[in-house]
Amino acid sequence: MERVPILKLGRTLFVSIQIDLQDDSVMRLQEDLADELAATAATGVIIDITAVEIVDSFIGRMLTMIGSISRLFDAETVLVGMRPAVAITLTELGLSLRGVRTALNAEKGMKLLSGRAR
Amino acid sequence: MTLMDELPIQSGDDVVRVRQRVRVVAADSGLSLVDQTKLVTAASELARNALVYGGGGTARIEVVTSAAGRAGVRVGFSDDGPGIADVDLALTDGWTTGGGLGLGLSGARRLVDEFELTSKLGHGTSVVVIKWSR
Q: pLDDT for B61-83, tens place per residue?
């Protein structure tokens, strides 16, 4: 199982998913992020999915859960870089990713988060 | 390119390999990027089902041609698991026995052009899907 690295940039945790996600890797990411949020008191999480070719119901559910978990640590999650084909497929699949904010790219995602930086 | 591929589904890595293979065959068959993505996503759901609920199985990926001469990709999933007691219920949005969202099977059906599910209690489940090029 490959692990997704988590970078800390100021008070933001930055995750760029560059691997073909398997279920165990996503669950591991969820746990690693919760640990990092608790340890660093970060106020934001950016998840970059520019390189992600598909988001199925399991991965989608995990992304939503990461958003919920972050909120419990007083941090906001922004999902950035979704491919158009992924957006169309997710919608048809019936997943809305409710509760997770999205932005077109990492820069806009950082801007969204800086609005609430303390 | 071979016309038919058979891949095992025994681990999470196998599910990833099935997705990657379906992507290559779908691209080679001329499916649009959106249609490739839909088929690969459906394949991901069905491969996971075969692994989680069926205890593992097999994926068969084939290039097919419709009566009207259109190219398409057919992917068949089979497992020797416990089977599905109520297929109609299993295809309902939101119904789950696995603690998920219950969108895997019903969602996969929406993403493809043809979908056929056969299941026999105690003998396993088979799902065949086709996506045609436009």
A: 999 999 999 999 999 999 999 99
CATH number at residue B57: 3.30.565.10
A24/B34 Cβ within 8 A: no
Nearest CA in chain A to B41: A56
Domain boundaries of chain A, sorted by first residue: 6-109
Q: Total domain count for chain B?
A: 1
* Helix (H), strand (E), coil (C) string for B82-125: CCCCCHHHHCCCCCCCCCCCCCHHHHHHHHCCEEEEEEECCCEE
Determine whether the interchain pair B104/A56 forms a contact, defined as Cβ–Cβ distance below 8 Å.
yes
pLDDT at B88 exceeding the cut of 90: no
Kindly indicate the confidence band of residue A51, based on its pLDDT and cuts at 50, 70 and 90.
Answer: very high
Mention the CATH class of domain A6-109.
alpha beta
Nearest CB neighbour to B93, from listed A56, A92, A94: A94
Whole-angstrom distance, CA of residue B63 vs CA of residue B74: 6
Domain containing B80 equals 4-132
pTM higher than the cut 0.90 = yes
